[in-house]
Design a protein that fits this description.
553 residues; alpha/beta; single chain; 10-stranded mixed sheet; 15 helices; 15% strand; two-stranded antiparallel sheet
């Protein structure tokens, strides 16, 4: 039925009832090969098999054949025809599996979600589907937005922490094998943010799930990242009367001063810092002098806030709790302006409600009663640690993943204003100590820190790269990634309302590689940490060949 104009639904329609078996000619006599293969996944025989996957009781709720061209207009008009399977793993882990009916490349890719999840975000793994992959996403055990799902719900927290990712991978592999009659030759994972945490959890705790993993900007401290980074910066930038200290109109003053001091360190003054961690800027140099135009300088309090943003969270003793933001990322600091006052009531959908609903859920100040101002940086880190370990992928021992031949690509943009890039650098450094030193670790694990890249993608420096091909070449050809080409894409991504059955926000068309000519204005190489990138002194800076590796940090 590859030429169908609309999706064919097999779940519960007359003639294709669940009690029919694959051998029943009445069920499949009038079907094409693709329809029959898809429909058989909904039979009683298949259902019983999936229900008995070890530790992974699985129920298929619906099976559909989706014609080529997708269901979201221009946002997925290049998708192939695929069998769409939606199901649940007991008790409440939802998953969406899509398998191309033609030209399957023999491989499987799982995509990660973001934030609190509660939806599939299947558009994030569309770049793999168009390449012929069978792809799956999970809602991580709940539906909807916000963190309320985890409030006094231990099962929901465990599913979100690690169980949903692992069991979805197990169930999807079995369904893929049933559909194609053979198992996938390679199994991969790709995700960023919460998806990056899923990726690192898989490498550390379930090393046999995937042959290769792409982990972007992982949440290493699920419960701590909000109070130590986002909430800390919000509080640092709020005066006792609730007003904002470092205001939006001073961002350009600060950013331009940073560029003046550090832009040329990479060999080119172009408004971008290729190695921002080498910039030792002091915002106190911008404090207003007598007679100076106050619009062109900072007050002492504003300079202090800027330094706190860079230094990261501290307790009352001045001890470092968390990393700050590298210089050069000032344009993104507006994320911390104009939010709910730290003395105000928080709400379910806020990005930092996780602290109350999952981290400090007990007591009079827990759950929906939590306020940003409640967090005590001397007392509460230990409280978060009571349950944080179920979420946090902090174990640097990757020996089991290495031993099974796994390959791990970790990337983290230096301008990330959600999760500090130094969290990934710290993890990588620890991993090199535990896994045989830097040279030995680089045989299976490499870190890239794209300059001026935002959270997961985008940014002034360029945040789009062909991570999939990089991983494929490493796993399948033994070609280790000695560089990644980061593209500064100028063509806005196509975005349309998501189908109601898929949940979540707009459906976006993620970059397809190779990129179309004219869709980006520059491309630069980024080398594996600790090597940075420097302008060669000749050639067009917009071209990768004009850049060379710099001396390791």
């Amino acid at each position: 039925m590859s030429g169908a104009s609309q999706s064919q639904v097999f779940s519960g329609i007359p003639g294709i009832a669940p009690d029919m078996t694959p051998g029943d000619p009445a069920a499949f006599a009038n079907m094409g090969k693709e329809e029959a293969a898809c429909a058989r996944l909904f039979t009683r025989q298949s259902g019983e098999a999936f229900a008995h996957i070890p530790d992974t009781p699985t129920l298929i709720n619906s099976v559909r054949l989706i014609p080529a061209g997708g269901t979201h207009g221009a946002a997925d008009d290049d998708l192939p025809e695929f069998c769409r399977v939606e199901g649940v793993i007991a008790p409440t882990i939802g998953f969406l599996l899509r398998m191309p009916t033609k030209n399957w490349n023999g491989k499987f890719m799982m995509g990660g979600c973001g934030g609190p999840c509660g939806n599939y975000l299947e558009d994030r793994v569309d770049p793999a589907l168009v390449r012929g992959y069978a792809v799956v996403n999970t809602d991580m055990g709940h539906k909807g937005t916000g963190w309320l799902f985890g409030f006094n719900n231990l099962q929901g927290q465990i599913d979100f922490a690690y169980r949903a990712t692992h069991l979805t991978a197990k169930a999807a592999k079995e369904i893929v094998a049933a559909f194609y009659g053979t198992r996938a030759s390679r199994n991969y994972f790709m995700g960023c943010s919460t998806g990056g945490r899923q990726a690192m959890i898989s490498a550390q705790r379930f090393p046999n799930d995937f042959d290769g993993i792409i982990a972007g900007a992982p949440v290493y401290d699920e419960l701590g990242d909000s109070p130590y980074f986002i909430e800390y910066n919000l509080r640092a930038n709020t005066a006792p009367d609730g007003s904002t200290i470092l205001t939006k109109d001073k961002i350009d003053v600060l950013h331009n001063a940073v560029l003046k001091q550090c832009d040329g360190l990479d060999g080119l003054n172009d408004g971008l810092l290729m190695d921002p961690l080498q910039c030792n800027f002091n915002p106190a140099t911008l404090v207003c002098k007598p007679g100076q135009d106050p619009a062109q300088c900072l007050s002492p309090a504003q300079a202090d806030v800027a330094q706190k943003f860079r230094d990261g969270a501290r307790n009352s003793k001045g001890e470092t709790i968390y990393w700050g933001i590298p210089w050069g990322a000032e344009k993104g600091w507006v994320n911390y302006f104009g939010w709910v006052s730290p003395t105000g009531q928080q709400y379910t959908g806020s990005g930092y409600a996780i602290t109350g609903y999952l981290g400090l859920s007990s007591g009079a100040t827990g759950g929906p009663n939590y306020k940003v101002a409640d967090f005590d940086y001397d007392r509460d880190p230990d409280r978060l640690n009571l349950v944080g370990d179920i979420y946090n992928p902090l174990n640097p021992d990757l020996s089991r993943f290495k031993a099974r031949g796994g390959k791990l690509i970790l990337f983290h943009g230096t301008d990330d204003n959600n999760i500090p890039v130094e969290a990934s650098i710290d993890y990588f450094r620890k991993a090199t100590l535990v896994n045989g030193g830097e040279a030995e670790t680089r045989r299976f694990f490499r870190l890239f820190t794209p300059p001026a890249m935002d959270h997961c993608r985008g940014g002034l420096g360029g945040g789009d790269a062909d991570w999939i091909t990089l991983l494929e070449n490493w796993v399948e050809k033994g070609e280790a990634p000695d560089q990644v080409i980061m593209h500064h894409v100028t063509t806005p991504a196509i975005s349309v309302p998501r189908a109601t059955e898929d949940y979540g926000g707009p459906y976006a068309k993620m970059a397809r590689y190779p990129l179309q000519p004219g869709s980006y204005d520059r491309a630069r190489p980024v080398y594996p940490w600790p090597v940075s990138t420097r302008y060669s002194g000749k050639g067009d800076p917009a071209l990768p060949g004009s850049w060379v590796p710099a001396k390791p940090r």
